User: Which sequence fits this backbone?
């Protein structure tokens, strides 16, 4: 019984310090030094309305936009998840085929894998630089732009996520599409 | 790509090993100062005695230590159970989360009490901020502290001293070890772009005019202790693959360091308390060897493309990308999968269900051994069990009385150690057999064939290893799954803490002898080999038949 009493005292102390104190301190620092990312990296449009989060993928289906990676949860920002399909799953092959058809990929012009494979959370904001290049013709045609202008946009937006530790460059789809709209 | 991946792995594993050395030294001071009554240590002792009351001022034998630990864990479980059950009536619930189902509440409370963090719910869908912080994050601190406390007690006992006092130890671990580390990590994560807000979901109108709700919350604070305490429970459902839980390559790297840091430092703390740093070095090296083999296997097999796209016009130069994030780079997913399962962390940086078959075997091996660094505190305790068995076998082979640190290992100690080790196999294989043979398991599968079997096997491995990761396609939020894994998590948590304490209790009743030239030295290559062999034979071979039915069979299928 005495053990329970001591346990309850320690439970209260740890709740007070490790939960209330700690959370408040981290929250205060976060809101002071980086309020933008601390609140979800939201992007607002010219009218002040929220158009999305820089870190969270959103659906794009119009031909004039870059399309993100497929999402097993249809880009649900309030219920994220992956497909959890194994390499031997026929469902995964079906999805691969569907993406091949959507992009019109052929053996001579194969689809970069990131455009066929869903991410872990279904909200990956990035695609590979190759995946962005793959969509240039469609976008340029839909917008009546020179392909070179779209290419230049991609070159300017591509980053190596880990600097010297990564070779392959990636681009943020939402930021790229916002840049397209500004052209 | 090979060079970058190699550099990446070396930086993370080697870098963490370097930081673990000074941390182990600090943890020794925090948990077991050489003079607890003077100076800073004296101040700390008096403060924690004031909090814990009179019971925290006395030395406890192993039985009292165990009772104190269990009493505290009962309080942990009950408080969290209550918070989860009442969440719809409590504050800090901006998105109006509703009541949870009974067996899910039991499973979740058991899961976080046992440092497992198996999640049969999805955080952003089901839980209020109060449930996340006051219930789950609190347990992430105190369950990890329980593990560190138990290791400190075990080490003191082996050093021939009184075990100490649980109520003192658990406070030292929570306030002096975990809290400062978590605060530093949380700030680093905030700087890396992880959200920390009490506002509810944001609603965006996308460029194409669709409404998108974006869940957020006090994520940074939660993720920091999730990683440091080998907890692993994510704020969001898909854990550290979620771009708001792990926004960049750099946050991914920092989180991986945080996963293995404290488990590594625990080995050094153990060595300092028993006063045998060379011995700790040998244990560290054995653990490191296992972890490197698993990493090599995982990174190699995951650089192969997924078989699912093999006959399609898809260019898979980056390896298997299903369930992976572009920002983490090609080695990020497989490296994480090994680190998180070698320690009993269980957070994920890629979807394990979609890993290539042999890559998916590496996390399972990590959970079966459960001692190649292992959970905070308990990983080293598990390795102690292997040491007891290994020393005993070696003693039999050379025909001398087996001794460890001068303590005679006899039938009673070996029985306890083997019981604790074999219980792990029984929980995993027994549970898998039952669920694979009944509709409880087969109705929950997301993939057919050997991979479906792997999903069941993985879930029970994760529960019994107190890991918490999963082949998440499994539809495991049903009453049979919640109850079965809930019970296994609790048993698999407390049996391997209580029995080692009982072993130490039994050893301390004997007379300690001086080590002589006839004793097996615990500081050399012979001991390391013996220990590694014991781990392989007892830990891994038990599971080989099951592995053959699951991942190995699936790998053979993909070869055609």
Assistant:
């Amino acid at each position: 019984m005495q053990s329970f009493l001591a346990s309850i005292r320690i439970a209260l102390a740890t709740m007070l310090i490790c939960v209330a104190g700690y959370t408040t301190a981290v929250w205060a620092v976060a809101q002071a030094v980086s309020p933008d990312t601390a609140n979800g990296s939201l992007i607002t449009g010219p009218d002040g309305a929220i158009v999305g989060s820089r870190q969270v993928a959103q659906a794009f289906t119009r031909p004039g936009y870059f399309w993100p990676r497929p999402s097993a949860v249809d880009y649900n920002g309030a219920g994220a998840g992956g497909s959890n399909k194994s390499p031997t799953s026929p469902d995964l092959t079906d999805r691969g085929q569907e993406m091949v058809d959507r992009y019109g990929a052929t053996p001579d012009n194969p689809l970069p894998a990131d455009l066929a494979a869903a991410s872990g959370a279904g909200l990956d904001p990035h695609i590979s630089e190759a995946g962005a290049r793959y969509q240039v013709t469609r976008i340029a045609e839909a917008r009546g732009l020179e392909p070179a202008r779209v290419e230049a946009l991609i070159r300017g937006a591509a980053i190596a996520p880990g600097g010297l530790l990564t070779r392959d460059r990636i681009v943020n789809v939402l930021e790229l599409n916002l840049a397209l709209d500004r052209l | 790509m090979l060079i970058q991946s190699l550099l990446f792995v070396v930086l993370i594993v080697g870098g963490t090993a370097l930081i673990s050395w000074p941390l182990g030294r600090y943890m020794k001071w925090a948990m077991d100062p050489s003079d607890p009554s003077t100076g800073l240590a004296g101040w700390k002792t008096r403060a924690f005695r004031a909090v814990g009351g009179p019971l925290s001022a006395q030395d406890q034998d192993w039985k009292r230590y165990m009772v104190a630990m269990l009493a505290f864990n009962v309080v942990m479980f009950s408080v969290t159970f209550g918070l989860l059950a009442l969440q719809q009536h409590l504050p800090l619930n901006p998105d109006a989360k509703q009541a949870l189902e009974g067996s899910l509440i039991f499973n979740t409370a058991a899961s976080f009490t046992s440092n497992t963090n198996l999640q049969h719910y999805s955080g952003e869908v089901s839980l209020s901020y109060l449930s996340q912080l006051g219930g789950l994050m609190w347990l992430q601190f105190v369950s990890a502290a329980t593990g560190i406390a138990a290791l400190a007690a075990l080490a003191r006992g082996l050093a021939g001293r009184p075990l100490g006092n649980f109520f003192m130890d658990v406070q030292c671990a929570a306030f002096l070890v975990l809290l400062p580390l978590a605060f530093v990590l949380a700030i680093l994560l905030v700087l890396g772009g992880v959200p920390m807000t009490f506002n509810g979901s944001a609603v965006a109108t996308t460029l194409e005019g669709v409404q998108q709700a974006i869940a957020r919350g006090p994520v940074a604070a939660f993720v920091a202790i999730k990683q440091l305490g080998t907890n692993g429970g994510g704020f969001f459902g898909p854990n550290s693959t979620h771009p708001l839980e792990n926004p960049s390559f750099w946050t991914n790297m920092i989180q991986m360091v945080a996963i293995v840091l404290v488990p590594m430092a625990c080995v050094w703390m153990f060595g300092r308390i028993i006063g045998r740093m060379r011995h700790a070095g040998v244990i560290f090296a054995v653990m490191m060897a296992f972890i490197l083999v698993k990493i090599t296997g995982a990174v190699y097999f995951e650089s192969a493309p997924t078989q699912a796209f093999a006959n399609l016009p898809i260019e898979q130069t980056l390896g298997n990308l299903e369930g992976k994030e572009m920002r983490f780079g090609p080695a990020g997913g497989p490296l994480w999968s090994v680190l998180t399962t070698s320690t009993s962390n269980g957070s994920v940086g890629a979807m394990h269900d979609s890993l290539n078959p042999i890559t998916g075997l590496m996390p399972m091996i990590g959970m079966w051994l459960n001692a190649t660094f292992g959970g905070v505190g308990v990983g080293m305790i598990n390795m102690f069990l292997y040491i007891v068995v290994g020393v005993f076998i070696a003693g039999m082979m050379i025909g001398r009385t087996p001794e460890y640190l001068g303590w005679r290992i006899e039938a009673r100690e070996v029985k306890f150690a083997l019981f604790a080790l074999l219980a792990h196999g029984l929980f995993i294989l027994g549970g898998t057999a039952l669920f694979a043979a009944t509709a409880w398991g087969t109705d929950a599968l997301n993939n057919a064939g050997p991979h479906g079997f792997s999903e069941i096997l993985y879930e029970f491995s994760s529960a019994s290893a107190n890991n918490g990761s999963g082949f998440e396609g499994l539809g495991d939020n049903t009453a049979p799954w919640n109850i079965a894994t809930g019970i296994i998590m609790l048993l698999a948590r407390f049996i391997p803490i209580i029995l080692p304490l009982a072993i130490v209790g039994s050893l301390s009743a004997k007379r300690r002898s001086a080590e002589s030239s006839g004793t097996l030295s615990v500081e050399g290559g012979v001991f390391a080999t013996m220990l590694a062999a014991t781990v392989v034979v007892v830990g891994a071979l038990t599971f080989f038949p099951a592995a053959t039915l699951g991942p190995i069979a699936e790998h053979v299928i993909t070869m055609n």
In short: Chain B has a mean pLDDT of 95. The first strand of chain B starts at residue 202 and ends at 205. Residues 382-559 of chain B form one domain. The first helix of chain B runs from residue 2 to 31.
